[in-house]
Amino acid sequence: QVQLVESGGGLVQAGGSLRLSCAASGRTFTSYAMGWFRRAPGEERDFVAAISWSGGSTYNADSVKGRFTISRDNAKNTVYLQMNSLKPEDTAVYYCAAAPTRDQGMGALRASYEYAYWGQGTQVTVSS
């Protein structure tokens, strides 16, 4: 079992920045690739970004390229999502998730079914 707890959400004006954190506990953190997803009101859950177990590879959704950066600190069992130049359409509940590493390509980590564990989510609201 892996427990994931997100933090860092809040209310920010358009153009502002937030950094989300996701602290993991339980099984070995480096056994998992990590991802961030989001769900806007009335919408499906969408992929945002993913990072390999080592942190050496990342993959972002087109909608956040150049604005969001995923990173991880394996010594702290934590994954981050730095969000810059936020837009009102970024408003959503943001979830982190852990995918057992099985040499899947980074593109495969777009799929929510790759992930075995999910956090409870943190709300991000961007005002115009």
Q: End-to-end distance, in Å?
A: 40 Å
Strand content: over 45%
The total count of strands amounts to 11
Class by SSE composition: mainly beta
User: How many distinct helices?
Assistant: 0
> Which percent range fits the helix content?
under 10%
Parts with pLDDT < 50 across at least 5 consecutive residues: none
The global form is: globular
- H-E order: EEEEEEEEEEE
Describe the sheet with the most strands. Answer: 7 strands, mixed
Q: What is the alpha-carbon Rg in Å?
A: 13 Å
Instruction: Give the rounded overall mean pLDDT.
Output: 95
Short description:
The protein is mainly beta and 128 residues long. 0% of the residues lie in helices and 52% in strands.
List descriptors:
mainly beta; about 130 residues
Write a structural description.
The structure is a single chain. This protein has 128 residues and is mostly beta strands. The protein has no helices and eleven strands. Strands 2, 4, 5, 6, 9, 10 and 11 form a seven-stranded mixed sheet that branches. Strands 1-3-8-7 form a four-stranded antiparallel sheet, with no helix packed on it. The protein is globular. The N and C termini lie far apart (40 Å).
Furnish the topology, listing elements before pairings.
Elements: E1 2-7, E2 10-13, E3 18-26, E4 32-39, E5 45-51, E6 58-60, E7 68-73, E8 78-83, E9 92-100, E10 117-118, E11 122-127
